User: Which sequence fits this backbone?
């Protein structure tokens, strides 16, 4: 494992190297047992290997001294111990935020962010990790550094889980443990749903990573069929929906897949998830000065979520180079939050973490593809024009991003909305429990 503080610029991506070995974290226990049997090992080895993968601090097969050298070599030939072994770290916020840039076996870069919240009063210490589900993202939200990169590829189960194992090892070395996990890094989790569900199962399996299901949050920009698939599974994971605008004209601009699944369909699907799981949905609202933070926006949001029992997280936009926009001022955020509260919604104002290390998720990876100044200027001009059109109330004429799943969500939306209306939304769980977090995902520190 190479692990060090990164230099001020990220190294260029090398030519892709393909490594056919699967990551051990994505191999099911029965498959692992079968593989060990094929290698002529006794049955108890499976438990030893599981301990090395899930409970030891070993960063590589070499360091798993509970296994003999020939077995370690045999396993290393077949399985990668860690698919994110090459990781660079940056620290921020007096070391309370740690940004990791992981190089995958094919040279792609993804990011995870570890945030430490010390115990305060009644509140226990929290250590929250924000992880990536894709390299890049196809959705293309214009305020997001990852969206600017475009879509590169889906991560597999091991590549997702290994970000967490990596962070766990760093935490353990400081006498800490992971309390919360959020899919709020690079990528749209519901556009890589098989791997995300697979990873969530591994991470919440008591015999493997063992995180409490309620401590895992999946964030989506509003892929309605994906929300419905999750609803059918009815897990105890928290669903966060990135809303950013309550009106379609503005959301078409800020979250381009709104052109496929408009805001009401997204909220109805989320209500269906809340009804099926008893878990309160939280809404993320990135606040952009003068664009989506007016009293009229707050009122539209309050009307949209009225009676849903949901919670809104207001997040000042982290500035990213290619936009003409700034984050809302604290005064505007307070006023916006106040209007939502007055309308009966739960609201949290999040603060950004890790700004001084260029830590908007996707920013480190975006540095590698530094765009020429003229291209950035053209993009900003286009966004100024598009913002003016959106504020005038016009729906976008541009198509939805390519590569979204097909199918009309219509009838299912109606059913989930009806189910939601028929069942009360669970109140936040106030029982004290080990590592229990306040409801709603903590802000991803990367912003
Ligand atoms: N694709 C998923 C999950 C990853 S993005 C989603 O959009 O929900 C996670 C969160 O980071 C989203 O709420 C997203 O809107 C927010 N985000 C992206 N760029 C940001 C920026 N520049 N400042 C603040 N938050 C940002
Ligand atoms: Fe993708 Fe989420 Fe960024 Fe939008 S905010 S581009 S959905 S990662």
Assistant:
């Amino acid at each position: 494992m190479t692990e060090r503080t990164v230099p001020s610029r990220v190294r260029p991506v090398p030519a892709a190297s393909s490594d056919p070995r699967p990551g051990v974290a994505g191999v099911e226990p029965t498959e692992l047992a079968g593989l060990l049997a094929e290698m002529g090992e006794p049955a108890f080895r499976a438990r030893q290997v599981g301990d090395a993968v899930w409970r030891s601090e070993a960063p590589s097969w070499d360091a798993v001294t509970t296994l003999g050298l020939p077995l370690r070599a045999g396993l290393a030939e077949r399985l990668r111990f860690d698919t994110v072994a090459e990781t660079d770290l940056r620290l921020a916020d007096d070391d309370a935020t740690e940004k990791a840039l992981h190089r995958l076996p094919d040279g792609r870069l993804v990011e995870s962010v570890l945030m430490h919240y010390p115990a305060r009063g009644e509140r226990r210490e929290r250590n929250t990790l924000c992880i990536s589900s894709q390299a890049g993202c196809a959705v293309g939200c214009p305020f997001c550094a990852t969206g600017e990169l475009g879509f590169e590829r889906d991560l597999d189960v091991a590549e997702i889980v290994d970000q967490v194992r990596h962070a766990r090892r760093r935490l353990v070395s400081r006498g800490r443990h992971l309390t919360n996990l959020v899919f709020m890094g690079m990528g749209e989790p519901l556009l890589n749903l098989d791997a995300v569900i697979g990873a969530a199962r591994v991470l919440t399996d008591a015999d493997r990573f063992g995180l409490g299901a309620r401590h895992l949050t999946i964030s989506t920009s509003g892929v309605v069929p994906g929300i419905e698939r999750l609803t059918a599974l009815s897990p105890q994971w928290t669903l966060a929906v990135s809303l950013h605008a309550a009106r379609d004209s503005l959301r078409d601009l800020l979250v381009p897949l709104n052109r496929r699944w408009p805001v009401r369909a997204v909220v109805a699907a989320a209500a269906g998830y809340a009804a099926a799981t008893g878990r309160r949905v939280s809404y993320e609202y990135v606040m952009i000065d003068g664009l989506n933070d007016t009293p009229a926006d707050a009122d539209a949001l309050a009307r949209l979520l009225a009676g849903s029992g949901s919670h809104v997280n207001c997040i000042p936009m982290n500035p990213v180079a290619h936009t003409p926009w700034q984050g809302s001022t604290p005064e505007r955020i307070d006023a916006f939050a106040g209007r939502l509260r007055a309308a009966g919604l739960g609201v949290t104002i999040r603060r950004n973490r890790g700004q001084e290390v260029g830590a908007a998720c996707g920013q480190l990876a975006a540095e590698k593809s530094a765009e020429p100044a003229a291209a950035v200027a053209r993009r900003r001009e286009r966004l100024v024009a598009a913002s003016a059109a959106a504020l005038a109330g016009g729906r976008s004429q541009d198509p939805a991003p390519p590569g979204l799943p097909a199918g009309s969500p219509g009838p299912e939306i109606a059913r989930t909305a009806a189910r939601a209306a028929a069942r009360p939304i669970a109140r936040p769980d106030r029982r004290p429990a080990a590592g229990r977090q306040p409801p709603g995902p903590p802000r991803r520190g990367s912003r």
